[in-house]
Every structure is written in structure tokens, then in C-alpha cells.
Amino acid sequence: MNELTEKRTPELIGAEIRMYVDTGRRISLLCGIEIGRRLVEAKEMLNHGEWLPWLERETEFSNSSAQRYMKLFDEYGGAELPDEFMNLNISQASELIKVPKEKKKEEAKKLAVSGLSIRELKKELHERYGEKNGQIPKNTISDGKNLKPCPFCGGNGNLMIKGTALEGGIVRGYILVKCAVCGATGKGQYYCGPDNEQINSALDQTIGGRNAVEAWNMRWKA
Predict the structure, then answer these.
(1) 106: number of CA atoms within 13 Å, CB side?
(2) Long-range contacts of 179-183 (CB under 8 A, 24+ apart)
(3) Fewest CB within 10 angstroms: 94, 108, 182, 192, which?
(4) β-strand partners of 175
């Protein structure tokens, strides 16, 4: 062993690992914000129907992933990032978007020392700032049924299209209900058609949409 190797200790190595983890988090969030900035810029340049094909061709992002980065930029890209957020990763920072502005720094400080998983963080933030189970607004759909609360956390479900973007603004994938809090999903219904932006207002009126809602509601137990 040379002299440099002999001076190294497990404690020193641990400190170095923590340093790289912290640096990685900082770079991760800052890069996420800059990705969002450029996605917003590109979308403003593109014509209607060009967005999803461009995403797949140039970035390989899904529309939902792109929206996540764009929200990061919208929330954190307008000014210098506060110190309280510098050790957060993209997932943590994304969850804190839901927190009221005056509480964000306080929650970021807590998160830095809490060690919560993303699932635990979603649940905790929902309990503090989200709607209580008995007050969750129901998403009424055209055939008179309602989306019931998530059977796992009581959160609100969203009817959505998830899949691969094809040319011409077409998506091939599934229609499903996904919990906005814990991410649980119902059974997906095969779908190939226009993207969310073109069909969102009428998604619940499709056969797949109605079937997805029914599959979700079957998972719920009072």
C-alpha cells in the first residue's frame, strides 16, 4: 500500500460517498429544471400535433415525463433556487410543488432530515395539505358513475392515457385511472388514438374510459 491508501479510512470513504450523493441531488434537480426550460421553449415553437412526435424523436420522453420537467421549471426556474431545495432530488421537488408557497421551505427542511420514501412523502403531504378522505371531490363522468377514492390511501384518482407517442399525435397504450397521491393504478384498457390534449374532455365518454373507471371502482372497498 502507498502512503495515500494507508491514510484512507471507512469513515473518510463514507464522507466522500455522502458528498457525491449530495452533489448528485443538486445536479439532478438543477438539470431537471433546465430540461423543463427547454421543453417549454420547444413546445412554444411547435405546431399543433407536432409535440408528441417531437418528444419521441428528440428526447424519448413520454408526455407525462415531459410535463413533470415543465412543472419543475414553472415552479423553480424563475429565480435562484433557495438553499433549502439544493439537496432535494427531482421526485422530492416535484412532490413539494403541491405544498402552499408559504410552507415550501419549511417542508424542504424537514424532508432533508426525514429520510422519507417518495410514497411516504406523498402520503404525509396529502394528509397535511390534501383533501381529507371524506371530502375528496368525486370526478363525475358522463354515464353517472363516479371515481371512488383510492383503496390504498384514499386519494383522488385521475382518468388518463398512458402509452407511446406515435406520429400525428396518436398514442398507443392504455386508458387507466391513477391515484394522484400514491400512484396506484386500476386495470388498463387498451387504447390507440389521439393524445390527452386532444381527447381529455371526452375521455370518460369512450368505451375504454368507462371500462377503466369501472375497473378502478371494483378495487374499492368501503
Answers:
(1) 7
(2) 179/150, 179/152, 179/153, 179/155, 180/155, 180/156, 181/122, 181/123, 181/126, 181/130, 181/150, 181/153, 181/154, 181/155, 181/156, 182/119, 182/122, 182/123, 182/150, 182/152, 182/153, 182/155, 183/119, 183/122
(3) 192
(4) 161, 189
Give the model confidence (pLDDT) of 21-50 as tens digits. 777 767 788 888 999 999 999 988 988 888
The answer to whether 186 and 195 have CB atoms below 8 angstroms apart is no
Where b means 16+ CB within 10 Å and e means fewer, 4-32 reads eeeeeeeeeeeeeeeeeeeeebbebbbeb
- pTM of the shown model: 0.52
What CA–CA distance (Å, rounded) separates 157 from 148?
Answer: 8
Question: Does pLDDT of 151 surpass 50?
Answer: yes
Q: Which of 80, 77, 115, 117 is nearest to 97 (CA)?
A: 77
Q: What's the CA gap between 106 and 97, in Å, rounded?
A: 13
Query: What radius of gyration, in Å, describes the C-alpha atoms of the chain?
Result: 21
Q: Are 137 and 170 in contact (CB under 8 A)?
A: no
d(CA 125, CA 98) in angstroms, rounded, equals: 8
How many residues belong to the chain?
A: 222
Question: What are the CA-CA distances from residue 172 to residues 59, 101, 139, 192 (Å)?
Answer: 18, 37, 25, 4
